[in-house]
Amino acid sequence: MKFYESKAAKFIAGKGFYVVLAICMAVIGVAAYTALEKSEPEPFIEEGQFEENNEDFIIPSMPDEEDLTFSDDADAPVSEATDVTEETNPPVFVMPIEGNILKPFSEDTLTYSATYKDMRIHTGVDIAPTVANVVVSAFSGTVIGVDENTNFGTVITIDHGDGIVLSYCGVKNVTVKSGDMVEAEEIIGEIGTVLNESADKPHLHLELMVDGQYKDPLTLFDYH
């Protein structure tokens, strides 16, 4: 027994010491490697890996940098909408008869009446025909009256809209009646007789009322 103990002691004291040390180092290295392998984190889940096992969970792919575009309009000022009011052209009235002005409108100035031999106001304009005796509607509208008047003879009154009402006085052979719709230049009659202006040559006495006030009829026409 002492023999084996003596040989083991000699072995350890000699080269055996290094052998034992190497074995111990190897054991420690294996243990450290095993511990390190167990402590490593799980590998990163690559794009689309879950598609095989879970259809409800898909990692979206990031776009390439070159695919990222930015609009310059983001910083552009936003223009405010402008309220554009549509311009409406004024109605174009035509002369109801082609002729010359025999007597102008003079509501504030007295004019001589050849029929009554005195001075009086003239609330219309007298137009003596030079081509034909036909009277036409100056503009589209609604006939609101065809009446016999003791001063002006037969009077056709037409509402042309926008508060404009024209009275065509001293007309004969009337072709319209109250309630009729007429168009511009539609024939409504012929030159007849204006009773309180019978001393003058045949003419059309035309009166204009705008919103119930007498106005110069020539303001409706491009008359020269």
Write a compact overview of the structure shown:
By secondary structure, the protein is of the alpha+beta class.
Structure report:
The protein has 224 residues and is of the alpha+beta class. Helices cover 16% and strands 31% of the residues. It has 2 helices and 13 strands. The strands form 3 sheets. Strands 1, 4, 6, 7, 8, 10, 12 and 13 form an 8-stranded antiparallel β-sheet that branches. The protein has a 3-stranded antiparallel β-sheet with strand order 5-11-9, with no helix packed on it. A two-stranded antiparallel ribbon has the order 2-3. A hairpin with a 2-residue loop joins strand 12 and strand 13 (213-215). Helix 1 crosses helix 2. The protein is rod-shaped, with a radius of gyration of 57 Å.
Write the layout of secondary structure elements.
Blueprint (H helix, E strand, L loop, with lengths): L1 H12 L2 H24 L59 E5 L2 E8 L4 E5 L2 E5 L4 E3 L4 E9 L3 E9 L2 E6 L1 E2 L8 E2 L4 E5 L12 E7 L2 E3 L9
Classify the helix fraction into a percent range.
Answer: 10-25%
Gyration radius (Cα, Å) is: 57 Å
Q: State the secondary-structure class.
A: alpha+beta
- Summed up, the helix count is 2
Number of strands: 13
Mean pLDDT: 79
Largest sheet: 8 strands, antiparallel
Which residues form runs of ≥5 with pLDDT under 50?
Answer: 50-54, 81-86
Tell me the distance between the termini.
Answer: 156 Å
What is the element string, with H for helices and E for strands?
HHEEEEEEEEEEEEE
Proportion of β residues?
A: 25-35%
C-alpha geometry? rod-shaped
